[in-house]
Amino acid sequence: MSILNQQISANITNNKLTHQIVIVGGGAAGITVAAQLLKKDRNLDLAIIEPSEKHYYQPAWTLVGGGQYQIENAVKDEQDCIPNGAKWIKAYVEKFDPDHNLVITRDRQEIKYNYLIVCPGIQIDWHLIQGLKEAIGKDGVTSNYSKDYAPYTWESINKFSGGNAIFTYPVTPIKCGGAAQKIMYMTDETLRKRGVRNKSNIIFCTPGAKMFGVPEYSESLDKVIKEKNIEVKFKHNLKAIKPETKEAIFTVNTGTEIEEISIKYDLLHVTPPMSAPEFIKNSKLAVQNGSMQGWVDVNQYTLQHNLYANVFSLGDVAGLPTSKTAAAIRKQAPVVVKNILSLIQSRQVNEEYNGYTCCPLITGYGKVIMAEFNYENKPISSFLLNPTKPRYSMWLVKRYALPWLYWNRMLKGEPFEPDILRELF
Ligand SMILES: Cc1cc2nc3c(=O)[nH]c(=O)nc-3n(C[C@H](O)[C@H](O)[C@H](O)COP(=O)(O)OP(=O)(O)OC[C@H]3O[C@@H](n4cnc5c(N)ncnc54)[C@H](O)[C@@H]3O)c2cc1C
User: Fold this and answer.
1) SS3 state at 251
2) Can you tell me which atom of ligand 1 is nearest the CA of 328?
3) Could you tell me which residue ranges the FAD/NAD(P)-binding domain spans (predicted)?
4) Distance (Å, whole) CA 96 – CA 305
């Protein structure tokens, strides 16, 4: 037995709620990693702690907002997603005690583990924009970042009869960095079809200084913006909404000072600020300072915790310098699986994640830039095509292939590489 395993065994008593592997969060990451582990070894004693009865395919929410997908088709019962052989503990985790290999739930269950996988996703900080909670869901204020409002986005686009349509991006890391823009391009096209584009200003407000983090994709988006006659306001951070006067209040970084300005809106799509969930931020598992503060403190290659060797993290909550997407999880899950199995077998942890992520940038109906990249921040392509171009084939992948692959391959722990689609396109 390795020193690590001896330490773990010494810490574990004969408590009923003891599992060899405990996964916190049964979303995209938790289910994928559980299914892959059990495919490798049916005898693993594995529990998933997940409070929600429902499992959402969030990448479809953008399509719901754009009128291309029904919200009820983007959800399944969590029970049907839990892989055979895994135990579902329906509870909220509230605390971690990694020095004693212990997870504590809101209903006071204490669950011990030999190995812990932390993947409860990201927290949406709606409250950080003053007035948003009160304003959202009516009078043209909406967000695809909630299943409750994505259908209202489509309703609002169709009701819009002219004026300012504003799309915002926050100052924090978010899941799917492109989602704030995708809906804007679909809105542009819908307004053109409805004959009201000439009476409307489409405005993108972002605290950043470019359209996307990878320069090559950013250049492609600059062309899209120009073609569509969209106004971009860089260095603009949404701070408050005044629904009574239909004003969006931004702080603007001029380089020398921070100004506050107001822009009238008729349609306002908000991408809210996000952060690690509070119970992660307040735990010993979080990075304590620096740019990754609050996210789970893992090695960016092995996904193993930097202080607690029997803890791993993946998905949106992991402190990794790459874009947070379900596509990233596809490449992270096999790394976590191999490294945990290595630890169990007292072997070295040496499988590495390269930062792969992918954001299918919808630039119109029937057009997607499949923006794949990794830690090097350079475009790469699973499809052996120039990835910086909008393509109809990639729209078909986003609209039809990826949802099917998510439910039927990824969540089942089956190998799922988009390059298997190469032959089709
Ligand atoms: C509008 C939108 C568009 C997107 N578009 C794309 C796209 O085109 N391509 C792409 O790849 N990705 C996209 N994404 C991102 C993708 O959905 C996420 O990156 C992915 O779902 C993250 O998986 P996760 O398991 O880390 O988190 P989630 O899937 O959010 O799952 C987290 C789970 O943890 C559970 N949980 C939370 N708190 C606790 C707790 N205290 N205790 C126990 N469990 C807890 C939650 O209930 C949830 O089930 C999009 C997301 C949105 C919202």
Assistant:
1) strand
2) 11
3) 20-135
4) 14
Residues 114 and 161 in one domain: no
Token pair for 96: 């971690």
Give the separation between CA 5 and CA 348, rounded to whole angstroms: 13
Q: What is the dihedral of CA 97, 102, 103, 109, to 10 degrees?
A: -120
Task: Give the bridge partners for 263, in sequence order.
Answer: 248
Q: Whole-angstrom Cα distance, residue 279 to residue 150? A: 27
Contact between 318 and 33 under an 8 Å Cβ cutoff? The reply is no
- pLDDT < 50: residue spans in the chain: 1-15, 425
Burial of 195 per CB tally in 10 Å (0-12, 13-18, 19+): exposed
- Return the ligand 1 atom nearest residue 327 CA: 11
Q: Cα(213)–Cα(373) distance, rounded to whole angstroms?
A: 10
| Token pair for 29 | 């990451």
Closest atom of ligand 1 relative to the 57 alpha carbon: 17
Statement: the pTM of the whole predicted model exceeds 0.90: yes
* Residue 265 belongs to a domain: yes
Only one residue has tokens 């990754």, namely 292
Report how far residue 410's alpha carbon sits from residue 314's, in angstroms, rounded to the nearest whole number.
Answer: 15
Half-sphere exposure of 170 (CA within 13 A, CB side): 23
Nearest-angstrom CA–CA distance, 296 and 281: 8
Handedness of CA 83, 84, 90, 91 (dihedral sign): negative
* CATH code, 134: 3.50.50.60
Sequence-ordered list of residues with C-beta below 8 angstroms from that of 250, at least 6 positions apart, any chain: 205, 233, 236, 237, 238, 239, 260, 261, 262, 263
Task: Choose among 109, 178, 127, 147: nearest CA to 27.
Answer: 147
In contact, 353 and 301? CB cutoff 8 Å = yes
Catalytic annotation, residues: 176, 359
Question: What domain range includes position 42?
Answer: 3-122+276-354
Pocket of ligand 1 (CB under 6 A): 24-30, 49-52, 58-59, 61-62, 92-93, 119-121, 144-145, 175-176, 179, 277, 279, 315-317, 324-327, 329, 360
Task: Give the length of the chain.
Answer: 425
Is the same domain home to 116 and 129? no
Ligand 1 centre from 357 Cα, in Å? 14
Question: Do 306 and 321 reside in the same domain of the chain?
Answer: yes
Task: State in Å: Cα 248 to ligand 1 middle.
Answer: 28
Q: What is the pLDDT of residue 400?
A: 96
